[in-house]
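Annual report, structural modelling task.

Input specification for the 4'-phosphopantetheine complex:
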Amino acid sequence: MTRIGIYPGSFDPITRGHEDLIRRALTFADKVIVAVAVNVAKQPLFTLDERVALISQAVNDPKVEVRSFDGLLADFARGAGAAVIVRGLRAVSDFEYEFQMALMNRNLAPGVETVFLVPAFDLTYLSSSLVREVARFGGDVSQLVHPAVRQALKKKFAR
Ligand code: PNS
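The model returned the following structure:
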């Protein structure tokens, strides 16, 4: 039996923190589906296609599949035959929202467990929004994202 883990998010854009979590998820999942949400509340910097393409470039592993999903994560997870939903917990501030989401997802898809992973210590401060902010003002993000993402950010913010 293949144990499938779903790693959902906006990935606007994927960071080294996300990459770290995917690697960690592969220690207990046979396959990880990186599930890129179509419906993100805020207007994303990168289009859905761009976000999917950047993830595929940053994570080149046959055990990782990149897919987009619209609607409820619980429905997508069930449809994909996932055993677990993987989320990262960086700080206490993440906890309340993540806890609520995990309970709601369990309510909607009782067979799918949510697993929280702790990122590498030196990536704990990292978020896509901070990366976007640093890149917008010309800061160096080379330690924070894959080179393909750095290039894409540079292009987005070219003046
Ligand atoms: O990277 P993010 O923005 O923290 O990811 C949040 C995401 C996309 C995982 C979450 O908003 C989500 O699952 N959206 C899909 C719609 C849904 O299922 N909402 C109810 C969650 S209980």
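The chain has a mean pLDDT of 96.
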